[in-house]
Design a protein that fits this description.
Blueprint (H helix, E strand, L loop, with lengths): L2 H9 L4 E6 L3 E6 L7 E7 L8 E4 L1 H9 L4 E3 L8 E4 L7 H17 L3 H8 L2 H22 L1
Antiparallel strand pairs: 1-2, 2-3, 3-4, 4-6, 5-6
Amino acid sequence: MDAEQIRQVALQMPHVVETMQWGANLVFWVGDKAIGGKMFALANLDGDGRAVLSYCAGPERYAELLELEGVIPAPYLARAHWVAVERWDVFRAAEWKSELAAAHALVAAKLAKRTRDVLAMPLREQRRLISERKAVLAGRAVKKR
């Protein structure tokens, strides 16, 4: 696996949105951040020797995953039971898919009711609402300057 294959897998999951943040990090969200979506995985595209992918493991799998060679506590997110994988060869392709699906499910289950309600709307209505919300947030950012 590599970052592009992970991207393809993640974008096939329901309600996934991707953003570039914090330098060269590709962040995958369940739901758009503008409506209260939450991130479930983060791919480091820098190739700087740090972890290639960090994701939500949940309290049940966290300790188990840390026993694997090449899996460490995710910097800044370990307290939320996130792990960081140092190399793409730590898991086989099917295992990567399973890990990402589990991370997606864990985060989706924790979304606020109002966010889940927006995600349950018809796609056209959902897009309109997200667009309106982004406009409001952009207006607030301009006022702060």
